[in-house]
Amino acid sequence: MSTNEWSVTFEVFRQKKGQPAHYDEFVMKVDPDEYVLDVIERIWAYTDRSLTFRHACHHSTCGACGMRINGTEKLTCITPIREVTRDGGKVRVEPLRNFPILSDLVVDMGEFYLRLDEAKFPQVATLKEACLPFERKQQVREDGNFERLVDCLECGMCISACPVALTSPEYLGPAVLAAAQHALHQFNDKSLFDYVDNQDGVWRCHSAYECTAVCPSNVDPGWRIMDLRKNLLRHQISKIFSR
Amino acid sequence: MYTSTKKPQEGTFLWLAKIIAGLVIVIILGIHFWVNHLVAPGGLLSYSDVLAYYQNPIVPIMEVFFLIFVVAHALLGLRSILLDLNPGKKLLSWINIGFILIGIIAITYGTWLVFFVVAKGSGA
Amino acid sequence: MKNEPNSINLLRWFDPRNRKLGTWAFILNRITALGLTLYLFMHLIVLGTLARGPEAYDNFIKLAKTPIILIGETLVIAAGIIHGLNGIRIALNSFGIGTRYQQQIFIGLMVVAAGCIAIFVKSMFFGH
Questions:
Q1: What global pTM score does this model have?
Q2: Domain assignment of residue C69, given as a range
Q3: In what helix (H) or strand (E) does residue A118 lie, and over which residues does it extend?
Q4: What is the count of structural domains for chain A?
Q5: Is residue A214 part of a domain?
Q6: Under 8 Å between Cβ of C41 and B106
């Protein structure tokens, strides 16, 4: 057990309905190897029971605990303290961008989940299909036909990081487009092409690849959006020549 | 439907037009810059040099094509940037009309200017 | 945040803090696009001097040799090279080419751009 103890100041974003946003400071004694989410829980448990935040599995499977730590999107259940600060340092905790704020660190993911449904997000896939195509070799097992949950945790961090979603709430967003790409690949449902072929879909992306940079789960939405574009172009061009 | 069902304002083909115009521009701009300033006599730094240069029929043809592609790419690009600000349907149709007008005016003006220079050079 | 008016968020497009390399590509492309579009319309208008006779055009060329204009032209060329190379990368990505290594390709292209701009600056300010 680590006997190391750091003193870290947490600046936490607070906003309740109808009230102005502000930051509350909490000075916490932390173990540098514990996770940011653990400390946030401690703040709630022992200091301020009015702090609201989301958390569930605590092992990077559910996608509930995505937040901005020092301005960058992180999955707080797997972000150790030593990764984001030092002894005597500060940690700024803010909710995800580009989602309406419900309360403190909790954002409204409703529309996001509904869009994922529309994109026919496949939650489960065969081992081969569950990961990126250029990583298939590492994932496939010869013995038997296995399935697993696909990589996307639906955490919304990619949408928070996307500079386009900053000004365009109508933009479907990386997660939804990645889901559509995944679904197209698995189910070959051509109606998904129409779903993404518009200015709020695949053509709104400006190749910043921030989504790929913050994804905690190896989905690589940037790559998937470009793959979707490639297939969409192919589909449109073949449509012309098969009339 | 939780996303808009309005007719797409930038589908594949508008985007393709922008990208292909962009790729064409990379090539023609290179040629334009190189011939106008490094190949043309005097680097086109005097009125008479310009007039003489435009007597070669390839020049006005290339420049007009260049103009069309550049104006199209620039206006489509500007429109994309404005689309990022999520304008309403009505504002967007005004933007569309405005840009089409600007495009027509710019191309018409540029083409007129090119042929004016050609005529001046051959008449004078 | 989604609830704020877009005019504030528009400035956040150009805020590179806590962002990765890809945002630099986005910012560079957008700024060069706006600069080049401005230049395009200025260029078209200024060339109108050709229609006003030799004095008009030649006077403008004299003006074009002043340092401020030379610096402006250098910026335009730099913008054109950066925007063009980055645009090629974006076009290739959208056809599915080079997506896995797009970061490295971006860095490589910007190094090339820096080289070309340096050559241009040398020939513009220090003779061929």
A1: 0.90
A2: 6-125
A3: helix A110-118
A4: 2
A5: yes
A6: yes
